[in-house]
Amino acid sequence: MFFGEEELIKIAEITRTHGVEGDVLLSLNPDFDKNIITEDLPAFLIIDGMPVPFFIEKIKKLGNKIIAGFRHIETMEIAEKYVGLDIMTLKSLFEDFDEQEYSEELIGYSVFDEKSGFIGKVSLFNDIPGNPVIETEFQAKTIIIPYSEDIILKIDDKKKEIQISAPQGLIDLYLEP
Question: In 3-state terms, what secondary structure has residue 30?
Answer without folding.
Answer: coil
